[in-house]
Write a structure and sequence with these properties.
79 residues; single chain
Length: 79
């Protein structure tokens, strides 16, 4: 599986890459499906939201749409 712009539709842990403060970041991230959207929490402690209560679809960080986000393969839950 390659990298995808689409947020996974199944809860769990995935590889994620996105543009951070100091360049591209590649780390595990947890995808949580909410009743009216999705939340993604990265291992770097960045949280992204999308959905009806968060300005629409497309992951946002601090209210701004982030188009650099890509999701890779699903991984086992880190311990």
């Amino acid at each position: 599986m390659g990298w995808s712009k689409k947020t996974p539709g199944v809860e769990g842990w995935y590889w994620m890459k996105y543009r951070g403060k100091h360049g591209m970041v590649k780390c595990p991230a947890q995808v949580v499906i909410l009743s009216r959207g999705n939340m993604v929490h990265s291992a770097r402690n960045d949280t992204f939201f999308e959905g009806l209560d968060h300005g629409g679809w497309g992951l946002r960080y601090c209210g701004k749409l982030d188009k650099s986000i890509r999701f890779g393969p699903k991984i086992e839950e880190p311990t």
